[in-house]
Give the backbone structure.
Amino acid sequence: MSISAKANRLWAYANPKKFLETTEKALPFFWVAAALCLVVGLVWGFFFTPDDYRQGSTVKIIYLHVPSALMAINIWFMMLVTSLVWLVRRHHVSALAARAAAPVGVVMTLIALATGAIWGQPMWGTWWAWDPRLTSFLILFLFYLGYIALWEAIENPDTAADLTSVLCLVGSVFAILSRYAVNFWNQGLHQGASLSLDKEENVADVFWVPLLVCIAGFVLLFVALVLYRTGTEIRARRIKALQARERVGA
Amino acid sequence: MIALLMRDLKLAFRAGGGFGLGLAFFLIVTVLVPFSVGPQSSLLATISPGVLWLGALLACLLSLDRLLALDWEDGSLDLLATAPLPLEAVVTIKALAHWITTGLPLVLAAPVLGVLLNLPQPGFVWLVVSLALGTPALSVIGTFGAALTVGLKRGGLLLSLLVLPLYVPTLIFGAEVARRGAISMETNTPLLMLAGITAGAVALLPFASAAVLRVNLR
Amino acid sequence: MIALLMRDLKLAFRAGGGFGLGLAFFLIVTVLVPFSVGPQSSLLATISPGVLWLGALLACLLSLDRLLALDWEDGSLDLLATAPLPLEAVVTIKALAHWITTGLPLVLAAPVLGVLLNLPQPGFVWLVVSLALGTPALSVIGTFGAALTVGLKRGGLLLSLLVLPLYVPTLIFGAEVARRGAISMETNTPLLMLAGITAGAVALLPFASAAVLRVNLR
Amino acid sequence: MMPDLGKYADAVLSAYAASILLLVLLVLVSLWRGRRMRAELTAVENRLKRDG
Amino acid sequence: MTLEVSDLSITRGGVPVLQGLGFALRPGHALVVRGPNGIGKTTLLRTLAGLQPPLSGRIEGADETIAYAGHSDGIKPTLTVIENLTFWARVFGARSIQPALDAFDLNDLAERHAGNLSAGQKRRLGLSRLLVTGRPIWMLDEPTVSLDVSAVAMFADAVRAHLGQGGSALIATHIDLGLDAEILDVGPFKARPREIEDFDGDFL
Amino acid sequence: MTLEVSDLSITRGGVPVLQGLGFALRPGHALVVRGPNGIGKTTLLRTLAGLQPPLSGRIEGADETIAYAGHSDGIKPTLTVIENLTFWARVFGARSIQPALDAFDLNDLAERHAGNLSAGQKRRLGLSRLLVTGRPIWMLDEPTVSLDVSAVAMFADAVRAHLGQGGSALIATHIDLGLDAEILDVGPFKARPREIEDFDGDFL
Ligand code: HEM
Ligand SMILES: Nc1ncnc2c1ncn2[C@@H]1O[C@H](COP(=O)(O)OP(=O)(O)OP(=O)(O)O)[C@@H](O)[C@H]1O
Ligand SMILES: Nc1ncnc2c1ncn2[C@@H]1O[C@H](COP(=O)(O)OP(=O)(O)OP(=O)(O)O)[C@@H](O)[C@H]1O
Ligand SMILES: [Mg+2]
Ligand SMILES: [Mg+2]
C-alpha cells in the first residue's frame, strides 16, 4: 500500500462515527495496559528500588516526576499537531482531540510541579525557586489555562476550534521563546552537577528500568484518556448540534 | 488607512483620553509600590527597573480591551470588514494607534517615574531604550489577544489571561536590559533579543490577528 | 435582593467565570514579578507581602469595570432603578457579588502564591487575615468608582484613576499588616485601622454610590 | 513490608499521594462526564426520532 | 391609578426639549405619543418613569406604578429566556412567568440563551417582562422595533388585555399599532428657546 | 453589476437556517426580503456581504460591490456627525459628503456629537453612510427602525435615486416602504433538518 493510501485510510478515522466505533474496541486494551504498567512501575519503584546515596529515599519521587514532566510537554505538542490538522483539513475530531487533551496536560503539569515542589523542600530547602526549568513549566501551566479558558468562553464550537488552534500555534512559538528567555534570565538549581541522573549512562539500571515502565504507563494512560475524552467531546458536540436543530425546528 | 489611524487617535483623545489614562495608571502603580513594599530607598533602587517595566506592561494591558471591543459593539468592525481595506491593515493600524496612545507616552514618562523610585543614574537611558524597543511588541501581541476575545461578553480578564504569558519573553528581556543598565552591566544580548522579538511580532502577528478576527466576525 | 445576588453570581460563572479569571490575573501578576525584578529569593522574600497585596488590589481593580457597565449598557440598570428595590440595596448587592467572585478567591489563593514568592513562614497567616479584612473594602470602594464612571464610554482607565487613590489607605494598612506579620512584628495597630476602614466603607459608601448612580442614570 | 523511607518519608509519601489523587480524580471526572454525555446523547436522539 | 401630568417641561443634555405638556392617562386607556424624530419622546418617557427629574411641572400618580421599556431590553445574553424572565419576576414579586411566556409565544424559546435570539425574538422577550412587573402603567418606547406582523399583533393583544384589566399604557411609536388609542402629538409642545438676554441662574 | 445567488444554504450558530435559496438582483432593481422573526434574514444579508461563509451554494458579483448596513450603525458617539461621515467617505474613497448630508437632512445636525442624537437621528446618520460608499449594491437590515414618517420617505427617495443611477438594493424589513420592489419571501426556504442517523463529519 502506498503511503498516501495509508494516510487516506488514517483520515477515515476523522469521521466521528468511525472514530467512536474504533475507539470503543481499542479502549479496553489501553485502560488495562495503562493500569498494568502504572501499577507495576510504581510498585517496583516505590518498594523495590534502593535509596540513592545522596538523595536518600526522595529519589523515589522520580517515578512520578519525570513521566509527568515529559507528558506535560508532549501533550502540548500533540495539541499543536491536532490543531494544525484542524486548521488545514478541518476534521472536527482533530480539534476535539486537542480539546480533550488539554485538561490531561494540565493535570500532568500540576503533578510535575507538585512533585517537584515536594522534592525541592528536602533537596534545595525551598518549595519553589525561580529555576529556568521550573519557571518554564509554570508558564506552560499558564498557557494550558488560557487555552482551556478560551475553549470554555466561546459558545460556537467551530469558532472556538479555530480560535484555540491559532492560540495554540502562536502560544507554542512564545512558549519556546520564553524557554530561552528564562534560561538567559537565571541559570538555576535544577539538576545541578550533584544530580548526575541527567545523563542516561549515569543512571543506574535499578532506577532506570522501573522509570521506563512508569513512563510507558503514563503514555498509555494518556492515550486511553484522550481517546475516551475525545469520544465524550464528540458526543457533547453532537448533543449541541442536535439541540440547536431541535430549537430551530421548533 | 490614514483615515482609520486619524480616527482612532481622535477617538482616544476624545474619550477622556486614552493618552492620559494609560499614563495615569502607570503613575499610580509606581506610586503604590512604595506603599506596599515599604519606603527603604536601597530596596526601591534595586527593584525600580523591574517595577517600571511591570507597570508599563500592566498599563498597556489595561487599555487593550477597548482596542477592538468598542468597534465591535457599535458595528464598525462589521463595516470595516466589508470596506476596501484588508483586515491585516486594519489590525496593524489599530496596534499602531494603541502604541501611539499608550506605549509612546509610557516611554516618555518612564524617566520621571524612575526618579520617584530611586532608579540609579545609568539606568535611565537603558530604561527608555528598552521600553521604546519593547512596547511596540506589547501593542502587537495585545492586538492579537484583543482579536481573539473580541466576540466575548467582557472578555477583559480572559484577555489578560491569554496575553500575559505571551508577554513573558518581552518582559524578561526588556526588564533585563533595564536592570543590567542600572548596574552598568553589558546589555547587548538582551537588547538584541528584545529587538528580535519586536521585529518578529510586528512582522508576523498581524496575519494571525486578522485571521482570528475574521473568524470572530462570522 | 437575593434574586439579584443569585443572578449576578450566575452571570459571573457563565461569562467565562468572573471567578477563575480574577484569580488568574492575580496569579499572573505574581508570576511576572520575578521576571521583572529578578529571581534572587532573598529579594523576593522582602517584597513578597507588598507585591501580593498589590497584585490582589490590581486583580480587584481589573474586574471593576464590568461591575455596573454591563447592566448599564443593556438597559438593566434603568429597569432596576424603576423596580421596587432601593438603589442602595442594588449597589450593596453588586459589591457583595463582586467580593464573592473576586475578593474571596483571592484570599484563598494568596497563600499558594506566597510560596512562589518565598513569603517567610510567619507571614502566611497575616497575609490571609489582612486580605480577608481588606478586600471587602476594595469591593465597596470599587463599586463607588464604578457608579461614578458608569455612563462614560469605556471608563475603564478613568475608573482605575479614580479608584486607586481611594485604595491607598486600605493598601497601606493591609500591606503593613502582611509585612509586619512576615517579619514577626506586632500587627495590632494596622490591623485595627484596616478593620476600621472596611467597616466604615461598608457602612457608608453604598449611600454615596447610590446617589452617584442616580445622577448617572438621568 | 513498607520500605524504610528515612527522614524523607513525608516528602515521598505526600508526593505519591498527591499525584495518585490527581490522576484518579482526572480519570473519575473523565468517566463521569463521558457517561453523562453518552446518556444525554441517547436521550436527545430518541426524542428527536420520536418527534420526527 | 390615573397618571396626571400638567405644565411639564423637560430637558435633555441641558437643553429644554418639550414644555407646557399636560395630559391625563386613565385606567383602561392607552395614549400613543407621536412626533418627529428628535422631538423628545424618549426624554418624556424617561422623565415620567422617574429616571430623570423634570425641569418644571407636576407629575402625579407615577410612584411605583410604571413599568418602563426603553430602546434596550435589559436582557442578559448568557442567561436563558426563562432565567431572564424569572429574575425580573422575582424583583417585582410576580408569582408566575407562564402568562408572559404565553403572551409572546416564547415557550419554544424558553431554554435558549438570550444572546442567540434574533432581533425580533429578543424584543419579544423584552416586552414579556412587562407582564411580570404587575405594574398598572406601561411606558413603552418604540416597542415594535424589529417585530414582524404576527408579533406586532401579539403585542397589541397584550396591551388590550392589560387595558382590559384596568391598566393603562403610554406608547411612543412611529407606526400604527392597530390599537384603539388616543393620540398625543408632542410636536406643538416643542420648547421655544428663552430670550438670549434672559441669562439667569440655571443656564437654560 | 448583477448579484446572482443560486442554491444557497446558510448556517447560524452551527445550525442551517435557510437552504436552496436562489435569486438575481439586477441593476436598477430592489428586492425586499420578508419572513417572520428568526427565519434568517439577518444571517442571509451577512452571508451575502461576505461576513460569514455560506454552507454551500454560489454567490456571484458580491466582491467589493456591497454596502452593508446592519442593526447597528457603526457610529462613534464622541465624533460629530460630519466626522463620522467623513471617516467612512475616506475609507471608501468618496469625494464629498454633502450629497449624503442633504439626502438625509443632516445639515442642521452636522456639528453635533453623534452620541447626543435621538434614535431616529442616529439612524439617519447610519443610512447616509451608504451614499458615501459608492458601492452599487445596498444591503440593508431593517433600515427604517426608529424613523418617523418623513424620514422613511427620505429613505425611500434615496433608494429610488440609487436605483435610478443603476444601483440595486436588498432590503430586509417588516414594514411597507412604499418602494416599487419585488418581494422575496424566504419563509419557504427554511432549512429542513438532515436525517438524525446521518452522523457525519461536520455535525450539522
Ligand atoms: C516544581 C518543581 C519542578 C519542576 C516543574 C520540574 C520539572 C522537571 C522537568 C520539566 C523535567 C524534565 C524531564 C526531562 O526532560 O527528562 C524534570 C526532570 C527531573 N527533575 Fe525536576 N522539576 C522540579 C523540581 C525538581 C526537584 C526539586 C528535583 C530534585 C531535587 C528534581 C529532579 C529532577 C530529576 C532528577 C529529573 C530527571 C532528569 C532527567 O532524567 O532528565 N526536579 N523536572
Ligand atoms: N446628551 C444630549 N445632549 C444634547 N442634546 C441631546 C442629548 N441627547 C439627546 N439630545 C437631543 O434631544 C432631543 C430629544 O431626544 P429624544 O431621544 O427624546 O427624541 P425622540 O423623540 O425620542 O426621537 P426619536 O423618535 O428619534 O427616538 C433630540 O433632538 C436630541 O438630539
Ligand atoms: N449564535 C446563535 N446560535 C444559535 N442560533 C442562533 C444564533 N444566533 C441566531 N440564532 C438563530 O438563528 C435564526 C436566524 O436568526 P436571524 O437573526 O438571521 O433572524 P432574522 O430573520 O434576522 O430575524 P428578525 O426578523 O427577528 O431580525 C434565529 O432563529 C435565531 O434564533
Ligand atoms: Mg426615541
Ligand atoms: Mg434580523
